[in-house]
Amino acid sequence: MRSRWFVLVFALATCAPAQEYSLALPGYKFEFPRDSFNHEEYQTEWWYYTGNLRASDGHRFGIELTFFRQGTSRHADSNPWFVHDLWIAHMALSNIDGQRFHHEERLNRSGPGIAGVEAETQRVWNGNWEAHIGEPKQEIHATADAVGFALQLEPTKPPIVHGRNGVSQKAAGAGHASHYFSLTRLLTNGTIQVNGKTFRVEGLSWMDHEFFTGSMATDETGWDWLSIQLQDGSDLMLYRLRHRDGSIDPFSSGSYVDQTGKSRFLALQDFTMTPEADLWQSPNTSATYPVRWHVSVPQMALELDVTTPLRSQELTGKFGPSYWEGAIDVTGTRAGEKIAGTGYLEMTGYAAGAPLPGHLAAGDAKPAQR
Fold this sequence. Notes:
The chain contains 2 helices and 25 strands. The chain has helices spanning 5-11, 358-364; strands at 44-55, 60-71, 85-95, 100-109, 115-118, 123-126, 129-132, 138-144, 147-155, 160-161, 168-169, 177-194, 197-212, 220-230, 235-243, 253-257, 263-267, 272-275, 279-281, 288-290, 293-297, 302-307, 314-315, 323-334, 337-347. Strands 1, 2, 3, 4, 5, 6, 7, 8, 9, 10, 11, 12 and 13 form a 13-stranded antiparallel β-sheet that branches. Strands 14, 15, 16, 17, 18, 21, 22, 23, 24 and 25 form a 10-stranded antiparallel β-sheet that branches.
């Protein structure tokens, strides 16, 4: 999923008509490494990294690094300062043991090499934040004030294409879709810096790449998205698209990836993703987020409970709406046997005043402060 309303909202005043761009339509054939890089014929595109890492002393971290491209004009112009695209980037570091959440964002035009993506050099960047999308390993690095990271990521499974027939459908109708793939299990190692101290870390990361024009329907106000990496080597991605009245869109879906890298599409009727009565209220936006979830995937005999080790993981944006995204812990059972894992949870639309799911809005829980 990983769509970002703040990219679209910020660009409304400056972007070219959507008719100038291609729609994400069924029948798209993915090719790699080609599709790891730019698709300028689509208006919106991003590269998205999240991960759960531990230092040798047991110190735990969550990391996020994202690069967004929003098309503003397809007009040919050789001036390097002409704005064909806006480039937005976010980086975040969840210091789990320290109970601190650090995040930064930046906005640039391409300019003379300020931000962009190049298949020739296998990289996407915004200023000195960069992802090198090489083979067999990738590299990401970013710094902001007192925190930063430099990491190597090695895929252990092939790219997983989400959805059906080349598209991840987000609503009824042609073009309400994206082309979306993930690297769901990247062995990760490197360094994290916090307040002058360097930690050598290792763990697992996840990468999403998505490109489209439009995608969401007008009555959809936000979504809840999960990536889960289980200790048995399987992975799970689920998302719920929420309507303005709090109901769930029937095009909500997901993917299950087994230990060998084989994926299975999950339609809404194949899973449940239910918020439980544990809410966190942001002191910055007053938004209230459900930070405990129950996930059921009967086909995979999975019953999972999702919690977070750090409740305060809200990214408050200067260039658009705020949202919650952070590291999670997963416990539960597969066919009655205990299972555990980690992952990332994203919740959008809450800071804009969207209604809570029905049983929570009815007053079954009170916001819980950290």
